[in-house]
Known about the structure:
It is built from 6 helices and 10 strands, in the order E-E-E-H-E-H-E-E-H-E-E-H-E-H-E-H. The protein has helices at 47-55, 83-102, 146-166, 183-193, 232-239, 276-284, and strands spanning 5-10, 16-22, 33-36, 60-63, 107-112, 128-134, 169-170, 181-182, 219-224, 247-252. It has an 8-stranded mixed β-sheet, with helices on both faces. Strands 7-8 form a two-stranded antiparallel ribbon.
Amino acid sequence: MSKFETLTLQCQDGYNLSARFYAAISESEKLPVLVCPATGITKQFYHQFCVWLQAQGYAVMVFDFRGIGDSLAGPLKNSKASIVQWGQLDIPAAIDALLARTDAEKVTLLGHSAGGQLLGIVPNYHKVAKVVAVSASSGHVKGLKGKTKLLAPVMFNVIFPLARITKGYGPTQAIGMGENLPKDVAKQWAQFCSKPGYVMNAIGKTVFEDYHAEITCPFISIWSSDDEIATEINVKDLLRLYPKAQTRIIELDPKSYAHKTIGHMLMFKKSHQNLWPVIEQQLAV
Length: 285
């Protein structure tokens, strides 16, 4: 028996997103949780974690951003999806759909990487009671470390521009960084990470409504000390964008949880499920 229901969400511009809804197993006063994926990562990646949250008494929704996974309509090279649209259109549609499904007044937004970096351009941000951001940061290239510090400039400045012309999309799958990306997602990712502030680099260019300074809900950032992207300096760079929010940082040391590595992606893997109560604790408080 399936533990979830597959839904189609319609955004304000008419675009359809594929989503999964995991109904709470037992009645609870816990706020529903909206899982917002990382760049190029599909909803399937979060399935085991969502099932676990469901068993803890939460109603959960996870979705594919436009241009990704089951929310890709037509050939990838023809996709006009962008990160800005993810924040301005996709996340708002998912928030409203989850509220309609649960009759709740607000949701908790659990964002992984990019999924936790866009609330400042989400028009219905006031329907979010709390953000728990996992491995979320500004991703500024100068704040990266390890192999990623070497790879990112090549990807952003060489691979993406060339592939935009030759392939019509960002070929991230070949280098183990999730699904291939719509060309404008790849372009904006490079632009946003080229300077501190992430999506703030689009304000006044492709984004004309900025809500960062209006957001007052708690914003908890959970990151691992061995993350090469969401490093301490980049995590703090993201949090500074929310001057009125109650921000808090929780740093995880892999060795403290008997792991060789956690990095940017493993916190949601079943192999690292001993970390899930750490995340859930922040959802509950």
